[in-house]
Structures are given as C-alpha cells and as structure tokens.
Predict the structure.
Amino acid sequence: MELTVNGDRYETDVPEETPLLWVLRDELGLTGTKFGCGVAACGACTVHIDGEAVRSCQIALGDVWGDVTTIEGLGRPDALHALQAAWVRHQVAQCGYCQPGQIMQAAALLAENPAPDDAQIDDWMAGNLCRCGTYSRIRAAIHDAANSLAEEA
Amino acid sequence: MGRWGRITRRTLLVGSAAVAGGAAFGVWRLNQPFANPLSPEQGAALNPFVVIDETGVTLVMGRSEMGQGVHTTLAAMLAEEMDLDWSSVRVVHGPAAAAYHNAALAAMGLPVADYAKTPMQHRIAGAMGTLSRAFGLQITGGSTATRDAFEPLRLAGASAREALKRAAADRLGVDAAQLRTEDGAVIAPDDRRVPYTELAEDAARVDPPQVAPRPATEWRLLGQSLPRPDMLAKATGAAAYGVDVRLPGMKFAAIRMNPRLGGPMRGFDPAPALALAGVERVIDLGSGVAVVARNSWAAMKGAEAVDVTWGPAPYPETTEAIFQRIAEAFEGRRNSRLRDDGNTTRTLDDAAQVIEAEYRLPFLAHSTMEPMNATALFTGDALELWTPSQTPLVQARFAAQAVGLRADQVTVHTPYLGGGFGRRLEADYSALAARVAREMPGVPVQVMWSREEDMTHDFYRPAVIARMRGAVQGGLALALEAKVAAPSVTRQAVVRMTGLPAPGPDKGHVEGLFDQPYAIPNYRVEGYLADLDIPLGFWRSVGHSHNGFIHECFIDELAHAAGRDPIEFRLAMIRPESAVAANVLEQVSMMARWRAPREPGTGRGVAFAWSFGTPVAQVIELRDESGRIRIAKAWIACDMGRALDPAIVQAQMESGLIYGVSAAVMGEITFAGGMVEQRNFPE
C-alpha cells in the first residue's frame, strides 16, 4: 500500500485493515498523532484526509481516500500554523497529550468557518476530550488564531 | 531524547574530576548529601540539577511533568538564581536517584490539620522529610513538588552561580565580588563577558559556595507567568511521551490481565491470536497474557483473540455487595477519631432536631489520556526502562523484582506523562513491561495498554459511605458528627510502594473531613476501614475528593436547617478559625456576585475545602435547559500563599475543577461479575 502523509510518499506492507493511526505511529514513526481510546470517542488521533478532520483510529489503511496531514505536517516549529502559534501564546497545553488532536480538529473548523463563535467552537470540539481540562484556553486560542488568519488574509 | 540518554547513562558515578561532590549547600549540608547522579559525557554537572556543556545550560528535573507545569516553575527557581535567559532554558527529566527525594511529601503524613500546625508539629514534619530522604522517595505527587523544591533549588541555583563567578574570577584575575551575572554569562567590571559554557568545567571543581537565595523583591522570573519550555513541542506533536519511545528493532506488545482484579488465570489458548497477521508471540504472565506483534494494533487484536479462562475475583462481585462490605466496616473497629471537639454524642442526644444524611460515593478511575504503557530492554544483567511515571525509583524497584534483578541494575528514563493524577505513582505497568522484555532478551519492547485494559485495571479512588449527623442552634452548627467507611488507599499503597505497613490512624481516609477550619463546638470525625481487596490508588486530591464533597454537602444541609445563606453560614464558623479561609470565601462571593439577583432557571451552590495546604472556595451555577442540567458557570478563589507562576496556578485550578465535575457527572465505576463495567470513555 502507498499513502501520502504531509506531502511525503510512503509504502507499507501492513494489512489494509490496519487503522491509519497505527500505520502512522508504529509503521511510519509519526508519533505526534496519539492513541487515546480506539473507538473514536476521545479525538486524540484526529488527522486530516484531504483537509477533513477524521479519527484515524477508525479509518482502515485501505479506506484512506486522499492525502493525510498530521500534526507534524500542519506546521513546524520554525513555521507554525496560526493555531499552533495561538496555542503557544495562550499556553494551552498541560500534559499536552490530547493537543495534537485538538489542534487538528480546530484546524478543520477554521478551514470551514473562519470566524466561529463560542457555541460553534464548543459544538465542533465536543468530541475531543482533555483530562487536564484545558477547554477554556483551547477556545480562546481558536478565537485568537481565527483573528490572526483574518488579519493575514 | 539523546541528551537525557547521555546524562543518565552512567548514573551514580561519583567524584570524577569534573563533577562537583553533589548537592552540598544550604540546609542540605546538615545531613549527609546525596551522591550527584549526573555524570554527563560532555560538560559538567554543577549539582544534581544543573549541567552545562558547550551548547548551553540544561536544568535537570527530579519531578515528572504531567501537565502541572512543574518543569516550568522548578526550572524558574534555578534560572532565577543563575541569571539565565529564560528563552534559552532547556529542561530534561533526570535519572531515578535519591538526590531527588521529596521531603515535603513525607512531611504531609502527620495526622493534623494543615491550617492549625503548631511549631512542634512543623519540627516533626521536618524530621519526616529526612525520613523521605532515607527512603529515596523521588515522588511527584501530593501537591508537593513546588513547596519541596523552593529552598533546595534556589540554593542550588545560587550555589552554581557563585561557583561560576569564582571560576571566572580565577580566569579574569578579578575578585569574584566584583563580578555579576546576566543571561548565562559572568560579566566583569570592564564589561568583559564570559559565558557559563566556557566556565563550567572549572566551576565544577570549585567547592560549591553557600549563599542565600535572593529575596523575592529581586525576582524577575518567579512570580511571573512564564512561557512553558514544553509548550512548543506540545503544540507541534514533537513532545515525546512514554508511548512515543521508538528504539531500533523495537517490538510492540499488548496485555490482557484478569478483569477480575487480582484473580488468577486458569489457562489460555494462544492459537486464535497467533493466527492473526502481525502477531508474533503470546507470553504467559501468570495472571494474564502479553501478545507481541509488529505494531500495537496487531498486538491489541491478538490480546483480545487469546482464549482465556479466568479465575474469580478476591472481592464481592457486584457494586451492591461491595457497598454492603463497606457498610459492615461501621460495625467493626474504629480506625481513627482525628477530631473530637466538645461532646458530640451528648449534644446530639439532647438536640431538639438532629439532621442526618448518608452519602455513597462511587469508585473512580484516573483515565489519563495516555493509557498505561512502558518500554523495556532486558539484557540479562540489566534492564533499561522508559516509563512515564511519578515515581522513578519505585518503577526501578518493581521492575527489578519482576525480573530478578537488583534495582541498581535498572536504568529508568522518564519521558513526558500524558496525565498522571496519581495513577502513575503505581509501578504495575513497568513491572509488566519488564516481564515481557525478559522473555525477549536484547529486543526492546513497548507494552501498550488498550483503553479498555487501562480503565478496567486501575487503582481506583475508593467507594465511600459517610454517615453524618448534626444539629444547629442560633444560626450556627452546634454539632457535626461524621463517620466515614471505605477501604484504605494508604494502607494498600504504602505497603505496595515501600513494603512497610501503615499502622495507626489513616489520615488520608478522613482528610477533608477532620481538618477543616470550621469552629463547631461539638465536632467529631471518625474513620472506619473496610476490608476489600479491590486495587486502590491515590486519585487526584485523594481523601479530599470524597470527603470535601461529603463535608460541604452536609454543611449545606445544616445551613438549610439553620435557615441561612450557605456562604454566610460558612463564614460565621470559618472566620473564628482562619482569616485566610474566610477571605477566599468572601472573594468567591464577590467574584460570583453571590448576592445579586439570580437569573430565572438557574441555581447556585458553594463549597469550601482546605486541601493540601490551600484553602479553596468555588461557586457553581447550574442552568435548567428544558429538564437537562447545564453547568453554566464556575468561580474559584484560592490562596496557596505565594503564586510562583500565576498562569500555571490558574490552569491547575481550572483543571482540578473540571476533573472533579467530570467525575461527579460521568466518572462512576461499577462492578458486575467481579469486573469493572465501564471499559472506555463512552461508558
């Protein structure tokens, strides 16, 4: 099987029913995407396929329909995505384990809705759990990132 | 990971020429100092907390970063004294070593209320800190990391700074007293500038000078909300947690242990697992199995597929029967009576009206976002362990025992923790990883738990029954009697972790009930320990998690009986005991505009707790949304004394509130057939 992740082509011989999450983490060594529940109930494994936020623990490798973007591909330390920069400004992360999933989920929101209100953010982010309870800073950082994207545009 | 690999590889090598003789400064000199566990291949370790090589200064933490920001605040204590440029500060977790013992934690064991400690009790607490040193309790827990580090780390930083200045004085031929330090360099009177990186090896040969830390008035980092050194890595997916350890040739394993906790395995058939693609091996762990595979998913599928026959649980099979067992504790011997003011029995016998309530609180799981895991490499006479834990030395000991090695044959690496909350004080997951690794010498193996395995094999916050009686008179509580029954976390965990029994009154069992600053003339708190073999552990805030709830719910009952506003009622009894505590209640009342008219369809409640040295008051507003209850707003006031990093304090307080509310609304753990019924987040 071949797949494109963050613009790079990869080949793997794992069975095609293997969930994308484990292909990324254990076969390709892209460990930024996290395992939390395995049943699409926590959002830690969120990545994009053709820009759409999906739970990679539920997408079989054989069903991947497009290019995959993970947290490592969204932005890099020297070229942060607006959301990552906002995450740093607002000091969002505590343990940080769920944050790659939170950021990927939020990135898909801003791509679709460049100026979400609180209720829209809460609704969109409701499936992403954070046991540290960073929710208020997540919301503030999403607003901030939306503003900075609007200024750039 | 490379850097900390280098630092820890040759642990416990003492006294080499470039390494200073350990943390011999300040108060530490009163006792035997610990060997400096750091022996970097490059550069020099000025003490167990500071390593300087040609690329810069690395601050070495003895506490685990699990979200609470400890790597920021502890690093700031060192950076403050050393005049480091904060943006250049690098932080790593240090090795498992007694030099990083936690004195403040041991001192917390005294069965007295924090708010009312006498000088003698403070002295005893200090002596218990020395005991912690003896046992090498390198523990991140009990809300102690910052308090414990405050003196030693500032002393370590000051001492390192002065040693660097002396090395510079020799080099420049200037009196050290004329030198100053700034942004990681020593500055001469003529503005010549020598970076620490050039002075480190010489400084390490200087007998560490003893200097007092700077007064708070001179601080430029402490007291500020600092950017966390781990934030960029955490926002870009680069932060390495336990599950992210990747080693050459590493295999992935999953485990499946008896869901009847502590029960035996009667037998198993590995064939269905071995038939799956990617599965390589099934290992007998006695009370369960491990499945080794090419990736974690194949391993987890394999673990599910093994056909296992389990033996019974060593405790009653249903939640109802378990609560029955807990209730029986009230009939048995009393464990503690840590508060007994006035004459509660007679007052209640004589009272015209006795208010009574019984509270039953459930078991709770920790449910860290990162499920339990550890990675191990066994090489016959050594074990290397990468394990996200709050207790590196305990992990080493448990893993060593599990594979027949001595603890000093185990090297422990501590990556970031994807949440701790007390779950990672335990070492079960490291011991299991070590046992799997022993079966495959020379091959590193990551043992990853599924969420289901994690949630059904926790060390749970115990279920509790509390029986409360009280009476009011003249708008105040006249009597409050609390009897609480539960199995003991402390007894189980102390035996597990130290091998020592925990006799005497169990403070953790009744903390949050006996130690609250209320002036109630007849006030009695009794603890009864239930005999129950369900694995129990320290769950964020421990006894306060249930007792704070119980105490404050019952105070509300008394306020209601007295016909008074719940904040006014509390203040009337708290003011005489503690001005600090009264102040947080007054503050939260102002913030929430408690006396202002309420919106229709909303209700508010208040609670107060003095927990782990900090008085906290919270107000929560609920909204009725056509029959469904929404937790609409919350206000928190707390006073932990000096806030070394206000933004981290705020994050921690919000975090605690959300963790508590989540537990109250969704966290219940129940048993059926001897097994935990909730297996994943949706349940």
Q: What stands out?
A: The beta strands of chain A are 2-5, 8-11, 46-49, 52-55, 68-69. The domain at 2-74 of chain A is CATH 3.10.20.30 (Ubiquitin-like (UB roll)). The longest strand of chain A covers residues 2-5. Chain A has a mean pLDDT of 97.
